[in-house]
Amino acid sequence: MTMAQDKPLALISYVGGMHGLIQEAADLMKQHFKLITHQEFLQNPSLHGTKIQVLFSWVNKPELLPSLFTSLPALKLVANGGVGIDHIDVPYLNSLGVKVSNTPLVVSDATADIAMGLLLASARRIIEGHQISMDPKTVDFQSLIGTEVTGATLGIIGMGHIGLRIAQRGRGFDMKILYHNRNRRSPEDEQAVGATYCKNMEDLLREADFVVLAVNLSPQTTGLIGHKELSLMKPTATLVNVSRGLVVDQDALLEALQKRTIRAAALDVTYPEPLPRDHPLLHLPNIIITPHIGTDTTATTLKMVQMMIDNALAAVEGRQIPNEVKPK
Q: I want to staple 230 with a disulfide (CB 3.0 to 4.6 A). Which of 114, 129, 256, 268 is the partner?
C-alpha cells in the first residue's frame, strides 16, 4: 500500500452533495491519490498547486477556468467523468502540456436505461399517475389513456454505443427500429438489433412514434432539432433527449409542445441546467424533465471512476493514456 504522503495529488470538486463524488468513488480514488478538494485548494493555492498532477472533473466541477490552470503548473491530466467533453477546451489544455481523458462505453447502459425510462414514463403518463395517486384530494382514480410502446416505431438519431444499447432495449418491446447516423452501422450491428438505416433524418422523423436523441454535441449537432424537424414529426410523436440540451432548439420545442405539433417531450438534458424556474417549458403538461441523471447509478459511477483512475495513473507514470481525447 502506498503511503499517503507518497501518493500523487489530485484535485476534486467535493464529496457528497448534489454534484459531488459519492463516498465510494472518493474511497476508490484515495487508494491511489491524495485528494485535495477545490475549497481546500482555494484557501491556500500555493500549498498544493505545484504538486497537483491530476484534476478529476465530475459533473463539470471544478469549473475549468484559465485562472485555475495558471495555479497548477505540475498538472498532467484533466480526467473527465463521462463521455461528453464539450465543456473542456482540449486544444488550450494541450497547449499547456495538459492532456484530457474521458470515460467512453461504460456509460452506455445506464444512459440507454434512462432513455427507455423517459420514453415509458411519457407514453404511459406515469408521472401524472403518481401525482394523482399521492394527491390527498384524490377520491377516485381517473382514466389516464397513454400511448402504446409495444410495436411502435422507435427512431434513434445517433447510433453510437449508446444508440445501439437503446435499440436493444427497443427490440425487447417489439418496436420497429429506425436510425440515422453519420456513418451507417455494419450489417451485423443492424441485424443484431433489427434496425433499419435512414440516410435522411427527415425520413426517420416522419415515421417514428418516438424519436430518441443520442448524439454527441458538436457544431454539426448544435440545434439539430429545430422548427423544421419538429414540424416533420407526427402529431402523436414524442421527442426524448438524453444527449445534450443544445442539440434541441428549446424555443422551437416550446412552440411545438404548446401548439401540439408533437404529442410530448421527455428530456434528461436542457440548456442551461437547471432551467430558470420561470422558464415556460417547466409549466407545460406534456413534458417530463429529469436533472441530467443518465449515468447516475452506483455501478456506472464506480466504473467511470475506475476508468478515470486508470487514465490518471497512466498520465502520472508517463504511460499512454487509455482514453485520451485528442483535439479535433
A: 256
Could you tell me which residues are beta bridge partners of residue 223? none
C-alpha angle with apex 214: 209 to 219, nearest 5 degrees?
A: 120
Adjacent-strand bridge partners of 264: 238
Alpha helix segments (H runs only) across 208-247: 227-232
**Segment 129-144, tens digit of pLDDT:** 999 999 999 999 988 9
Average pLDDT over residues 25-45: 97
* pLDDT value, residue 1: 47
The residue from 244, 277, 283, 324 that is catalytic is 244
N- to C-terminal Cα separation, the chain? 39
DSSP calls for 306-318: HHHHHHHHHHHTT
Average pLDDT over residues 200-229: 97
Rounded Cα distance, 213 and 30, in Å: 36
Which listed residue (292, 317, 319, 324) is catalytic? 292
Contact by Cβ (8 Å): 167, 192: no
Residue 219 burial (10 A CB sphere; 0-12, 13-18, 19+): exposed
Decide if 255 is catalytic.
no
Q: Evaluate whether 173 touches 198 at the Cβ level (below 8 Å).
A: no
User: Of 181, 152, 156, 151, which is closest to residue 167 (Cα–Cα)?
Assistant: 156
Alpha-carbon Rg for the chain, nearest whole angstrom, is 22
**Hunting for cell 451507417 — which residue is that?**
184
Cβ within 8 Å of residue 272, ≥6 positions away:
245
Catalytic residue among 206, 273, 279, 324: 273
Active site residue 180: no
Angular region, 256: left φ>0, alpha ψ -120 to 50, beta rest: alpha
pTM: 0.92
Is 277 among the catalytic positions?
A: no
Distance in angstroms (rounded) separating the CA atoms of residues 261 and 215: 23
CB-based contact 201:173 (threshold 8 Å): no
CA dist 312 and 77 (Å) reads 7
pLDDT exceeds 80 at position 4: no
